Amino acid sequence: MPPELATATPGNAPDSPASTGASEGSGTSLLTRLRSWETLIAFLIVVACIVGSQLSGEFLTTDSITTTTFDMIEVALMALPLTLVIVAAEIDLSIASVLGLSSAVMGKLWNAGLPIEAIFPICLAVGIACGAFNGFLVTRLGLPSLAVTIGTMGLFRGLAFVVLGDQSVTSFPATWTDRAFGVIGGGDGWIPNVLILFAVLAVLFGVLLHYTPFGRTVFAVGANEEAARFSGVRVKRTRMLLFVMSGFVSSLAGIEMTLRQSTASADIGTGFELTVVAAVVLGGVSIFGGRGRLGGVVLALILLGAIQKALTLAPNVSSYWIQIVDGVLLVGSVLVPNLVTRLREYRAHAGTRTRALRPARAELTTIGPRHKEEEE
Amino acid sequence: MSVTTTEIPVLALAGASKSFGAVHALREATLELRAGEVHALMGENGAGKSTLVKMLAGVYRPDEGTVKVDGAAVAFHGPLDARDAGVAIIYQEPTLFPDLSVAENVFMGRQPLASGRRIDRKAMHDQVNELFARLGVELDAERPVRGLSIADQQIVEIAKALSFEARVLIMDEPTAALSGAEVDRLFGVVRTLRERGAALMFISHRLEEVFAICDTVTVMRDGAVTFDGPLAGLTSDDLVRQMVGRDLDALFPKETASVGSQVLKVERLTREGVFTDISFEVRAGEIVALAGLVGAGRSEVARAIFGIDRWDGGSVELLGRPIHNGRPNAAMRAGIGFVPEDRRQQGLVMDLSIARNATMTRTRALAHLGIIRAASERALATEWGTRLQLKYHRLDDPVGRLSGGNQQKVVLAKWLATQPRLLIVDEPTRGIDVGTKAEVHRLISQLAGEGLAVLMISSELPEVLGMADRVLVMHEGRLTGHFTRAEADEERIVRAMSGQTQEVAT
Amino acid sequence: MSASAPPVDAGSQDRARRLSETVFRVRELGIVLALLLLIGVTAAIEPRFIHLGSLQDLARNASIYAVMAAGQTLVLVTRNVDLSVGSVLGLSAYISADLLSHGSPMIVAFVLGILVGGACGLLNGFLVTYGRVPALVVTLGTLYAFRGLAFLLTGGAQINAESLPDSFLKIGTGTVLDVPTIAIIALVVVIAVGLALRNFRSGRELYAIGSNEEAARLAGIRTSRRVVAAFVTSGALAGVAGVLFASRFGTVDATAGNGYELTVISAAVVGGVAINGGVGSVYGAALGALLLGCITSALIVLKIDSFWQQAAVGALLLIAIAFDRFIGLRLDAALRQRSAARAA
């Protein structure tokens, strides 16, 4: 049929009056936007590197890669599963508390004399249990994940303090702490071991999100939960698994951080949750779900690390600027594309505006003063 | 029943047309609403009624023709313009604030004020109670709207319209979800309003309701007005003929298939407050239509069979094996495909690509060692795209870019790819242009010819009569009719749809 | 309340109605009961708890949170969220304390604190409405940006109680007729905001927006303007909280109010404000803040490790939302039965 052919060509697609929902863009522009978003972040990384190297001679050194990795690694690890959680239109704010709980359990059990190899699986199991608890409250009781994970954020962090109190445990075996703090190839190397851990997990989560049946369901659930359910997707199970993954990786990050700093304490990683969310959103993942790529998030993490390093090394710039730049980037990452779209809309509509004809209404009386409509 | 007509219609459409892309939703429609008159708007689904209403409501603007208020042409730039002109629309699903009280819903933004610009709650409640008294209904003005029945919510909407001193009240299938007593109360309200000089428009599929309450009628078919005039002297048959008015066989290429063994068996299926005691079967190669009015519980039965909603009693068997209650995934594996009613919200994920949507049910089968390659995804999508003659630009385009008919083909592709034994199609051709409609019909009938069992829900009588081997009719959650293809005719079905139990075919 | 309630047609409707009234009218009462229970049990174990001094402490602790929770309620009711309040508090606390330490009159400090907060809220509101950026993203971004700004302003410095005028510190520590001054201020703010939200059109319109934004627009409500106003109020009240913070603790640096945002949201949600908008009252949120503060004090008095405090607050939040959900499901079930009865 010729009519269908006509509607399927790109030229006249965007303004079907029957289309509802603001999130629905035209196809090519959506794809271009996703791709160009990653390009833009890559470009910003280059800019940050150039500026950074101008500000300080120390910026473009292997050493700064090592130290930046250590500054960012826990946030980076937790950002991976959280990307999937947010793509599925949920959120997990309890991640940093799970990290703290994992560290506290680790310290407590080490003090109790358990061998370190036996402690790791216990900590990971704690993380899985925390994730499953979140998942249970969200999927079975149908509670909003924002409220749930604000609650469990307090709960898990509180439990961490209950477990370990305000003491810190530092006597972990050197073989393990060296592994966490070490670099590949020993003393001369500059690639931290934990960066390899991150790279492996990033590939795993990237494949999971973009190249597996599970990843397909994550996108479907996030973009339209109802349609996913009507396609036989097990929505609750998908969400449950995502929360469990998030808990698991958070506890892994807790183990990693504890070993790397050779210190277990209940308060480590406090406030990380919002940094992680910020990195994911900056990576181009829609906070409403259904959109995003893991590659974008990895690039966003690199960008945040580069900015942080550049501003820390810069001699005459206060490092307090880091937070301001991060905040502006975060808002800008959503605001700028929106403004571009609105500008286009405005141009498209500018020509067709006419004034409304007011009908004559003689005998009407209304109760209370009448409202003028809002001009959109 | 005195009919007082004034010279100038309060609200009118003159030669209004509207197209969406290639689809002509409305063609040179003319309509006049006069004070003190209840006007019926009738037509099949897709005949253009809702487009017409949205034009009067200021949601759409006519491509050609004009909207006239008191005889003068106006341009509504939005719903608020229409409201200010005294036009109020009562939609089937009222748009209220569930968390706020009834009185606040009526007066939101215009609450009566006491000294210091404080809201005068007492005055507000008094005024709302007065409005309810004028309407002759009893409703607590202080209770929250959440928890009110649809009927009560409509009353709140009507009270809101009255508080605006609306002169035109348009009701879009207001009785669809109402019980008998609630309909009587609504009609009482409508008569009161007519006596007070309001112009009312009433959209309904229920013929007896139209005859009970309306003075004049406009019938639409395929986007155009086919009849316009006083109701007096007309019969049900006259109206039905005006609504249908076409040769059925030409449009519905029904293939005669040999009916095979039983595929679906539904026994005494009940969901409290939604449907009760539903039993039927569907055999291989058979198309069984489930007819009924909107809100009769047809889609709900389909949703329960597929596992979207749980049932409270009864059982469902597919090929002799019981289907789990409330698990779509299990239903899908057992061999059920479900093309849902709301394509945009339930059938497709609009943001995702055509390829992803078409293969959504087959991701596991597509994966090789757990990994899906884009190439195999496209191959499957292309295969079904070709078989269903899908018109698309690129498989990577979001499915929202396609026309309605092609979107529906993607939904069908998604389910046919699972090689189902039973296909449930809920309103398969709603919002699809005539050409593609015939294609979808041909496809369904061809599939049945190949031995697929099809359960088809449809509100379009011609579709039901043209396609079905057997017709089941539901009314208020119960089966009220069961006809073979030979027995089924419009009159019998319409009567069963309005609740008069028909002799069940053996 | 319901003097003019007309007779209803079915017993089942009665049940549905009673249930919905439970949700809508008795929610705050539940917190009051929980509060009394907590105080009663604590006092039974440790009578010192109801001594004047410890009750005054309790009131002081809760005051700052209550003021912020009142503002947060306005934002939550419109189905948005303001995560930046903790940073706004820090900014306002430092700016006002800095002024006072340089000899400004108290009124100037208060006004400037409010203005700073209001300006922050205005920025949030504009970005959310006109920039169409989700509130969670906007306020997460400004949480960092405002905090960074506070660090830049202080340059790592700290203002101590010695440099602040005594009259100012009296607000935080003093009492009027045995009631802490700071609590009186908080009470006035909460009641004022509560009245505005309940008795003025603009307040009711916030509920309408959160309940059904599309319907609100159709009712002619200027939704963008209202949402901006909600953010401005939330910011301004966080500004007030900042000044109160300075007077209560005397010591102010750039980290003031760090992490408060989540406690404030918890307080509001415990107090019955729905995170999905449309439901809740300022009084409930303030009571929620009081309950959270009370838990802290009770644990101290009972010599339970204060470590339990965070866990208890988290658990309380989960119980509160689970309870609300449970009531909601019961209501739905009652309604479904009602329509079943009607069909029969």
Name the descriptors.
heterotrimer, A: 376 residues, mainly alpha, ABC transporter involved in vitamin B12 uptake, BtuC, 14 helices, globular, disordered N terminus, B: 506 residues, alpha/beta, Rossmann fold, six-stranded mixed sheet, 20 strands
What's the gist of this structure?
Chain A is mainly α and 376 residues long.
Description of the molecule:
The complex is a heterotrimer of chains A (376), B (506) and C (344). In chain A, helix 3 runs antiparallel to helix 13 (294-313). Chain A contains 14 helices and no strands. Chain A is 68% helix and 0% strand. By secondary structure, chain B is an alpha/beta fold. Chain B folds into three domains: 11-244, Rossmann fold (3-Layer(aba) Sandwich); 246-335 and 420-506, P-loop containing nucleotide triphosphate hydrolases (Rossmann fold), CATH 3.40.50; 351-419, no CATH class. Chain B is 34% helix and 25% strand. In chain B, helix 4 crosses helix 5. Chain B is globular, with a radius of gyration of 24 Å. Chain C is built from 14 helices and two strands. Chain C has helices at 11-25, 27-45, 52-77, 85-101, 106-129, 135-154, 166-173, 181-199, 201-211, 213-218, 223-249, 260-270, 282-301, 307-343; strands at residues 175-176, 179-180. Chain C has a two-stranded antiparallel ribbon. Chain C is globular and about 65 Å long. Classes of the chains: A mainly alpha (376), B alpha/beta (506), C mainly alpha (344). Chains A and B meet through helix 1, helix 2, helix 9 and helix 10 of A and strand 5, helix 2, helix 11, helix 12 and helix 14 of B.
